[in-house]
Amino acid sequence: MVRANKRDTLLLRYFTEQSEKSNYFIGLAYGYNQLGSAYRNLSQYSKAIELHKKGLEASREADDLEFKVYSLNMLGVDYRKIDAIRTALDYNQQALELAESVKEPSDELKRSINVSLNSIGNLYHSLEQYNLAINRFETSLKIEKELGNMIGLAINNQNIGEALEEQGKLDEALERYKISLSYNNQVNSDKGRIICNNSIAQIYLKQNKPKEAIALLLTALTKAKLLKDKFIIAFVEANVGWAYMQLNAIDKAEKHITRSIEIGKKQGIPRITALGTKRLSQLEQLKGNHAKALTYYKTAIELEKQISSTRNIRYANDVILRYESEKINNEIENLRKDNEIVKLKLKKNRATLLIIGISLVLLAVILFVFYKQNQLTSDKKMLTLEQTMLRSQMNPHFLFNSLNSIKLYIINNEKKNAVHYLNKFSKLVRKILEASSLKEISLEDELETVNLYMHIENIRFSNKIDFTIDVDRDVELNQIKIPSLILQPFLENALWHGLSSKQGLKKIDLHISKQNEEFVVISITDNGIGRAASEKIKEAKVLKRKSLGINITKERLKNFSKDYLNSFKVVFVDLVDEEGNAMGTEVTLTIPII
């Protein structure tokens, strides 16, 4: 079937039905895949997925590797269109591994490899690894040049332009979009021209050239509607709205942005809905409706989080690393086989081979030693950090003052109080020593430790501190793991910098809540004198005590959060009344949940 007839769904259906009647599985695989692509171009993604799955099944019945790879890639593209990152990646990964299993791939397989490379490049793009994405697209571009595939050249230049645009390299991005447009003109692709002109207009909007942009966008929108590709229509509508915003045509802007959101919701594409909602936030800001603007902005952020959640990013990273690792292992295996052939051919040059072997062993030893040295350096740093942390928890001032308070009870013959607080003190010391040997403890154990700590410290404040712990109902303290002894430095800070110089009622409130299934939020609020006043008092002192507790804690949180893309947060907020007078300090810790 010639390429010109690929969009003729009536003819494709007839061809598929005839193939099914005669059990011609190659024809079935071709027909289902082309029908699936046709429905995808009409933004009917569920139907496209159903047809491409049938195409995959038919290709397996036919035992045709090229059609298997093609079907897997098409499913990957379908799922990527609806932002199902994990599923899309799985299909493209299967396609790439299957295609690369062939030692001398055909031109068709090479094209399929390029589709997979583009998909992985787009994944790097979604992870904001733009240089890695460009590297993938450039690799694909090189193969497309060898094949003389102008559509592939257009797609790769477009993708590179998008990555450059995200990096803020607008002039370089514009150049790539124009190259892509040139290739699309050569193959007479209306769809390609619309995408390129939309991207070029987007650059103009970022350069504050709305008049140049609107001329391109209105033409692109008219042609996009003729194609009936809702995915492209929605993106163009969002940019038309943005252009009218810059031209201060508010009503027109709102109409186009609203259409974009409606299409995104109807087609089930969170990325489009998020973009439209963000544009709507900008529009409300322009109109002076700041409350509405904030609401729309929060909605857009939530939608973006659905698309690229921490779990999706971790999963994608794992798959990429697995692929790269397997590829390196395959290359090593191929090198090993080649080495065996070389050995057979070079029996007379045993001395040379021996030297090469010894060199490789030495290189391996050097690399191993280098690796172990780095590991030991890292372990030493962590050990030093943990020791410093323990010293900060068990500092001499705290021990001396605590024991001194207990001694005072004994001198005053308050035996009951002395025994009570001595028991609390010994329990606290034991808990600190136990926790210091653990990397992570439950939030329940951490709260028990800080409760004991505050109880002991309260003696020194004549029991005048009102300390409360408030935990939301949906927080399972025994299930949440955090770094051990992480809260004490913040409580100590509140006590000795916020409350020690304050007169009257002294309060510290510790509140724990879940931001979502990914993060727990711990806030510590005091009604002390505030950080500015505390700093003045500190500067006035002759003996200045250097506090390292907070910095050590941040370093430990950073190490703890490595598996979560360094996603922890520590935020200090100065609390003030309506007249600007200090009312205390609030510290908020946002920690990823295991």
List keywords for this structure.
five-stranded mixed beta sheet, Serine Threonine Protein Phosphatase 5, Tetratricopeptide repeat, two-stranded antiparallel ribbon, 594 residues, single chain, alpha+beta
Topology:
Elements: H1 9-21, H2 25-41, H3 45-62, H4 65-81, H5 85-100, H6 107-126, H7 130-147, H8 150-166, H9 170-186, H10 190-206, H11 210-227, H12 230-246, H13 250-267, H14 270-287, H15 290-307, H16 310-345, H17 350-393, H18 396-411, H19 415-436, E1 440-442, H20 443-460, E2 465-471, E3 481-483, H21 488-499, E4 506-514, E5 519-526, H22 531-540, H23 549-560, E6 569-576, E7 582-592
Parallel strand pairs: 2-4
Antiparallel strand pairs: 1-3, 4-5, 5-7, 6-7
Describe the fold and architecture.
The chain folds into four domains: 1-99, Serine Threonine Protein Phosphatase 5, Tetratricopeptide repeat (Alpha Horseshoe), CATH 1.25.40; 102-188, Serine Threonine Protein Phosphatase 5, Tetratricopeptide repeat, CATH 1.25.40.10; 208-314, Tetratricopeptide repeat domain (Serine Threonine Protein Phosphatase 5, Tetratricopeptide repeat), CATH 1.25.40.10; 389-592, Histidine kinase-like ATPase, C-terminal domain (Heat Shock Protein 90, 2-Layer Sandwich), CATH 3.30.565.10. Helix content is 72%, strand content 8%. With 594 residues, it is α+β, with helices and mostly antiparallel strands. Strands 2-4-5-7-6 form a five-stranded mixed sheet, covered by helices on one side. Helix 18 (396-411) packs antiparallel against helix 19 and helix 18 crosses helix 20 (443-460). The protein has 23 helices and seven strands. The two termini are 54 Å apart.
